Amino acid sequence: MQIQDVKLAVVGLGYVGLPLAVEFGKKRSVLGFDINARRIAELKNGQDHTLEVDADELAQAAQLRFSSEAEHLAEANVFIVTVPTPIDEYKQPDLTPLIRASETIGKVLKRGDIVIYESTVYPGATEEDCVPVLERISGLRFNEDFFAGYSPERINPGDKAHRVSTIKKVTSGSTPEVADLVDELYGQIIVAGTHKASSIRVAEAAKVIENTQRDVNIALINELALIFNKLGIDTQAVLEAAGTKWNFLPFRPGLVGGHCIGVDPYYLTHKAQSIGYHPEIILAGRRLNDSMGGYVVSQLVKCMTKQRIQVQGSKVLVMGLAFKENCPDLRNTRIVDIVQELGEYSVEVDVYDPWVDAEEAVHEYGIELIGKPSPGAYDAIILAVAHEQFVAMGSDAIRGLGKSQHVLYDLKYVLPANESDLRL
């Protein structure tokens, strides 16, 4: 296949797939496919509830068409799969969306076709888990009748500076010729350039360690914060001082959620355990980061007790539910840990987040968002997400939501140290 022969389809139009399809749609004809008919209707109307792509950008992708009808995929000969790869309740990889997408593609797969995966997986998943599905459904043989590629996504939800086209792209293919074609295809939209990995497994491994490295580093800083809090030392002040050295890495303590950092390490540890190796550092970091919600609540309860504020029956405002600032993404948000832990103390919790869809919050976590906090109503306030609206409020307006005596916990270092009662 030559680059001019490519007929492209992007399968899965979420935070990863839609921006990718839009960029390709500015350059070539592309079919954007998603099994969610409501999502397709929304996009056809020029709207994106994820806020990753605005109406103007959608309009610029003049060659992009949308469909939820699987038979429309038959017109494509190159498929890019961008479905979620979550973990289950036991923190094991859940490849269900990936397998189902592979089954859908397998039904229309033809000789010479190429299937490129972008979803985060453990090394070997493309060729060991996905390709057999394609073979079984299509009846075709891998690397004889059809081929595969892997090019890991690097989307950062809510980030308007680092976009699909401005982030360097790792590419790979199941044969040298396919690797060249995959690299050339992405090269049409990636102005930051590409890096062609030597194999699909190398590309898979590169992706999964990117976020594992961040997770472990944040776990270290979280542990340092626990130590400094016991010593009565301001963690932020320590990090600012240490940061004056040229090679000190600027990580900050906090809750680790989202679709990548809090999930990807479990894909790597699952694969490691399957070959008989028990990861020590990675899993220790995961345990520590997953415990931070409970630690935050224990700090809050101690501070309220010291100020003689009765905890049981108190009213606490949690500002923010999204996993990060200035985006509506609720995937794997660890703010829910705080809400659930407060419930163990019989605390009445109000959660306020102007970025998040209220129906989605109820559907995903059973949390009913409030429309707007009432002034003077709260015994404690947790500033959990650094949304621009919260930053603009400042300490006076935020404290105005509390009772005459209350505790303000600034999780995200939004306020100067002397304007809150607690910080990590």
Portion in helices = 25-40%
Task: Report strand %.
Answer: 5-15%
Beginning-to-end CA distance, first to last residue: 55 Å
Average pLDDT number: 95
Strand order, main sheet: write it out: 3-2-1-4-5-6
What is the strand tally? Answer: 13
Secondary-structure element order, N to C:
EHEHHEEHEHEEHEHHHHHEHEHEHEE
What's the oligomerization state? single chain
Overall radius of gyration: 23 Å
Biggest sheet descriptor = 6 strands, parallel
Uncertain regions spanning at least 5 consecutive residues: none
Molecular shape: elongated
Helix segment count? 14
Helix/strand-derived category reads alpha/beta
Give structural notes:
The model has no long low-confidence stretch (mean pLDDT 95). Helix content is 39%, strand content 13%. The radius of gyration is 23 Å and the shape is elongated. It is of the alpha/beta class and 424 residues long.
Short description:
With 424 residues, the protein is an alpha/beta fold.
Keywords:
single chain, 424 residues, alpha/beta, six-stranded parallel beta sheet, five-stranded parallel beta sheet, 14 helices, elongated
What is this structure's SSE topology?
Elements (H helix, E strand, L loop, with lengths): L7 E4 L5 H9 L4 E4 L3 H8 L10 H6 L3 E4 L10 E4 L14 H11 L7 E4 L7 H14 L8 E4 L18 E3 L4 H12 L6 E3 L3 H32 L3 H8 L21 H11 L6 H10 L1 H15 L8 E5 L15 H10 L3 E5 L5 H8 L12 E6 L4 H12 L2 E9 L11 E2 L1
Parallel strand pairs: 1-2, 1-4, 2-3, 4-5, 5-6, 7-8, 9-10, 9-11, 11-12, 12-13
